[in-house]
Fold this sequence. Notes:
Structural class: mainly alpha
Amino acid sequence: MPQTLFTLILFDVAALVYALALGLGLSDAVSVREHLLAGMLASVLIIFTHVLVIFYLIGTGMDIREAVEEDDALAKKYVPLTRRLKKKVFPLACFAILLIIVASLLGAEVHSRLIPAPGAETALPLRQVGGWWVHLVFSSLALCVNAAAFVAEFRAVRKNRKAIEEINEWALNGRGG
């Protein structure tokens, strides 16, 4: 899972960089549409990654609890570990998801004002539209929180994977033999 998460994070970063580059270069209705689509894609990918990690930690936490319930020493070691990992990841991941959603909605609202009416001028009133800076501020905040969430998630997934490997080793050598 750590390799999968790392790959997803790389895709998320690439999608965000692409959306940011398009947003900084807005010049016509086509560029607005491309930026909007790239931003929506990046948002969906980011939310997918966070939700995947949340469900992974929930599922493996239940599996770990079931695997060590027969051994009190292992239960005292690994059950609190899974709870600590969830406590570190879940609030940050959920807040990161919330900020991405808010930034996306604000961006859609700003872009809805930029799309020219049929038959109107094709020149866009880019910096005359109120609220673009709010989208930029929330997007920047969302990027920072998501970066922190990705770091916390990656660390938690690595620790979780190490715990699973230790429990598997115990099951093969300690309990069975």
